[in-house]
Specification:
single chain; 339 residues; mainly beta; Immunoglobulin-like; 2 domains; eleven-stranded mixed sheet; five-stranded antiparallel sheet; globular
């Protein structure tokens, strides 16, 4: 009798647990959809001949919605412009203040890229310029209005760039690959009158025929450069993130009128690869640009677990929506690659 009872008891346990199952419905509030903006603009970006404003607009989605981004069509996008304060607009060195630019963009054109559903709003005439701030306004009948403001800082020139001869390293290299490295040194003028932010990138150029060159990112070694830039600098290697790679820093640690920086660069080449040039690019970036890249990397790549903590933990300069609208200017120096 006891054996039969024990057998019945053990056979009944799964029945008890399964009978206690209950479907739980997660009740997420259906917040009003908003527009998300992505627009980085520059008067002299080195990788594109199109320097007009390009604005990509998508709609926010529920946390449970795994579908592709929904691009917003039929929006009215305007760009308004005004000069920065006088001390920031003396671009010629003569003391003359830059004249105010005309507002030429009261609407933008949307078009598709490569037969995809992606939609870009592009200004016809308004081109960003050094020394100007810009205001974006987007209206659409289905979403709340969004606005954003940013500016294009004066470009900072790379002076006296020197690259030591490239050397190869056989230690711990992959089969059929060679590791190259070199030291780069250059100077830049320090802007003591304001807090300036920078984004340093290094590229390797490969010829692809018809006079065209493609560029791949190069690793910036972290240790030596961090000693010069301070603990607040962020250096991201290309193998960690192609979105945020490069050195992001400001001039808060600079002590001299002309700041000298030196750092190591490194990369691997296959034996039959023949790069022709190395390009060092220095972007002078707006505060909005700097925050987007630094905070974006720290939140998405550096193991931070702040996704659910607060929407304010993610860099966002869009009023009434989400995303980034930010300006930057570029200076670059290209030198031959010597194997």
């Amino acid at each position: 009798m006891n054996k039969l009872f024990r057998l019945f008891f053990f056979l009944s346990i799964p029945t008890v647990f399964f009978s206690c199952e209950k479907e739980v419905v997660l009740d997420f509030e259906d917040d009003e959809q908003q527009m998300a903006i992505f627009s980085l603009f520059s008067p002299n970006d080195i990788f594109t001949n199109d320097h007009n404003f390009n604005v990509e607009i998508t709609a926010t989605q529920s946390i449970l919605d795994n579908s592709s981004s929904t691009y917003v069509n039929g929006a009215r996008v305007t760009i308004a412009t005004e000069t920065l304060p006088a001390e920031s607009t003396d671009l010629s060195g003569t003391g003359e203040v830059t004249q105010q630019q005309e507002i030429t963009s009261e609407e933008a054109i949307s078009y598709s890229i490569e037969n995809t559903e992606r939609i870009i709003y592009r200004t016809d005439n308004t081109i960003p310029s050094d020394g100007f701030s810009y205001k974006l306004t987007v209206d659409h009948p289905d979403y709340p209005r969004v606005t954003a403001e940013s500016y294009v800082p004066k470009s900072t020139q790379i002076e006296n760039l020197e690259l030591s001869d490239f050397k190869t390293s056989k230690e711990n290299q992959l089969e059929e690959f060679t590791r190259y490295f070199s030291q780069a040194t250059f100077e830049l003028e320090n802007q003591f009158d304001k807090n300036a932010q920078y984004h340093l990138l290094v590229w390797l150029g490969y010829p692809v025929g018809n006079g065209r060159t493609v560029y791949t990112p190069i690793t910036i070694e972290e240790d030596v450069l961090m000693e010069q830039l301070g603990a607040d600098a962020t250096i991201v290697n290309a193998n960690s993130s192609l979105v945020f790679f490069g050195a992001h820093f400001d001039n808060s640690t600079f002590k001299e009128a002309t700041q000298k920086l030196n750092f190591d660069i490194g990369f691997s080449l296959h034996d039959n690869e023949y790069p022709t040039s190395i390009r060092i690019e220095l972007r002078s970036v707006s505060e909005q640009y700097h925050n987007y890249f630094v905070e974006g990397f720290r939140l998405s790549q550096a193991g931070s677990n702040q996704f659910f903590s607060s929407p304010n933990s993610i860099s966002n300069n869009i009023e009434g929506g989400f995303g980034i609208f930010a300006g930057y200017s570029v200076d670059d120096v290209q030198v031959p690659f010597r194997k």
